[in-house]
Every structure is written in structure tokens, then in C-alpha cells.
Design a protein that fits this description.
The chain is an alpha+beta fold and 124 residues long. Helices cover 53% and strands 15% of the residues. The longest helix is centred in the C-terminal third of the chain and has 19 residues.
């Protein structure tokens, strides 16, 4: 992931997340006490009903979101060594704002004049 990729053919969160990534986010959002990658992996795969995603993919996704500031986390020591517990730093509304800000900043940086014109013509 390492950044947002927008798919204009999709709607809502699926425009920037794969279905399994959305399920993983929903697991973290519903875990106020945090969730480790094993829990996110198991619950996301269960919610996918038939499709499976690797634990490594889940770990990479959670780490990318932590690095972007969408999730927070703390490293813990436990059975089997060190692991991260992830917490929602942004709720669903906050994540939507993050997506909008990220995409708008990119558009303004890449196409400043055109983006400014379009924003003015939207009459928001």
C-alpha cells in the first residue's frame, strides 16, 4: 500500500481499499482495546467468507496504516516474541477526511490550476 491509490470505478472505502483491507479496518475500528495482527487476520478472513488473505499481507497493511498515521500501535512482548497491537487513531469519519485531504493535496500539488478551477466551479 505505502500510500493511497484511488480507483474511480469503485465507491466508498472500496475506492481506496481492497475488500479484505476494509474488513481488516472494521476489525480494528471495533477493537477499542486494540487488536494484534493475528486477531485482525482471523476475523478479516472469517468475514470474507471463502476468500483468504495471508497474515503477512495483513501485517504489511497494518504497518502501512500505522506509518501513515491512520492507526497507532504499541509493541508488546508475549508468547512467541514481540508483536504489535494496533489501535484506531482515526475513526471512520476521520479516515474519510484523511482520504479526502490526501487526494486533494495530491491533486493540488500535481494539477494546481486545474484543481483550483474545478473546486471553484463545484459551488460547495
Amino acid at each position: 500500500m505505502k500510500g493511497l491509490e484511488y480507483d474511480a470505478s469503485q465507491t466508498g472505502f472500496l475506492a481506496v481499499l481492497k475488500p479484505w483491507q476494509l474488513k481488516a479496518m472494521q476489525v480494528v475500528w471495533s477493537s477499542p482495546n486494540g487488536a494484534n495482527s493475528l486477531t485482525v487476520h482471523q476475523k478479516a478472513n472469517q468475514a470474507l467468507q471463502g476468500e483468504t488473505i495471508s497474515r503477512a499481507s495483513v501485517i504489511n497493511f497494518l504497518e502501512d496504516l500505522r506509518e501513515m498515521g491512520v492507526l497507532s500501535g504499541e509493541e508488546r512482548t508475549g508468547k512467541g516474541g514481540h508483536h504489535w497491537v494496533y489501535y484506531p487513531k482515526l475513526d471512520e469519519a476521520g479516515f474519510k477526511r484523511f482520504i479526502a485531504e490526501t487526494l486533494l493535496e495530491k491533486l493540488i500539488r500535481e494539477f494546481p490550476g486545474e484543481t483550483s478551477i474545478v473546486i471553484k466551479t463545484l459551488n460547495l
